[in-house]
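Example with several molecule types.
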Amino acid sequence: GAVVSQHPSWVICKSGTSVKIECRSLDFQATTMFWYRQFPKQSLMLMATSNEGSKATYEQGVEKDKFLINHASLTLSTLTVTSAHPEDSSFYICSARAGPNTGELFFGEGSRLTVL
Amino acid sequence: GNSVTQMEGPVTLSEEAFLTINCTYTATGYPSLFWYVQYPGEGLQLLLKATKADDKGSNKGFEATYRKETTSFHLEKGSVQVSDSAVYFCALSANSGGSNYKLTFGKGTLLTVNP
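Resulting structure tokens for the full complex:
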């Protein structure tokens, strides 16, 4: 199946710094990528939808100035957590849709962010 | 709006036991339904799906039938193995008015299978 890779898989940073997480589709072109946040023992919460070459669409309650999303190419989307705080510590997961008319998504391995 | 409710875990079974994880949904229109599995330390993987009423999705011995009358998509397996230990997510995909087909997930059910 299609492969989506995230980097880094885990990162620890100090409060107030910014962290960038990359999401790559390795063997297909993804016009749309999704960013999720997963809290312990909770479901995945959709943060934003990232479309190649255009601005991301954020879900209600997600701060777009804090969670910067860039989808500069058909195989790469990045999520930057700006001025991170301990409450931003979470598991961030990206996914990419392999086809235009399917709800099937392929997920990255996730990136665990810990803000000290 | 759309929502997915699945049984809360954790679920602990012995090897070769029968598994059922309940999932019900609320959605407008005719959603597609999915079960995703997340093994420890890994990302989500699609386990099976069904795109219309009465469809049965199946994979790796797991099955789920799309029941529109009960708005359910329960996951079953006749004989679980230790390697099935994971978190299972029920999800639906409904056209949100655009072409993005965003997924709505349930909270996940942790399954532990003991030898």
